Amino acid sequence: MNALDLILTGKRALVTGGSRGVGAATVRLLAEAGADVGISYHSRSAEADRVVNEARAMGVNSWAEGGDLADRAAVDRLFSRVDREFGSLDIFVGNAGIWPVADVPLAEMDDARWQRTIAVNLDSIFFTTREALRRMSSDGRVILVSSTAGQRGEAYHADYAATKGAMISMVKGLCVEVGGRAITVNAVAPGWIDTEMSQDALGSEDRARIEADIPIGRVATAEDVAGPIVLLCSPLARHITGEILNVNGGAVLVG
To answer: pTM, whole model, 2 decimals?
Structure first.
């Protein structure tokens, strides 16, 4: 299989958190497959511009809009841009989020950390998915980026695991709500990914331990996760909905 088999020419896609990591890799692959792609980013305008320029070099319409998607005003600005650029959407990839690095037991977690993680990882998904569905054509695709932490929890990161588990529950219910419009709703659930967000953990001596717990013996790249996302966006996955696609090298099955 290659990008030409995915037949996304002329599709209009929005990827949140598209300036780096999994989001940027997804934008590039969608553009390679022929889709026009808008991206949101929080504050890294230079990185967002670079991704947009890479997509445009592949011959598609691409643009970026900044803002904190936990803020309704920023979401409104993003979707006003969607309206101007695209008019409607065929594909929505909800990828923006954070993983607080510090290990904090729940009994010691303060309100600020809990509330910020919920706002960035879950409120933003609610706001953006709702707006995307209001603009989505029939035969559309919604893909939310969850995590293995949403399936088996993550000690000392209860805030993060709770948001990712909630996303999985959202997928399960939402796919039924919109199935009559031939819209599919799925999630990918990555494990460890070699991106900037996890570089502190992976840059230490812990990397060898982490890789030893992954059956295929390595941490995923951003591209390893982007490929399954784009597959779920394609006609090849038109009868897959309500599913959680694990992209973790088998790590969710051990430990």
So the answer is: 0.91
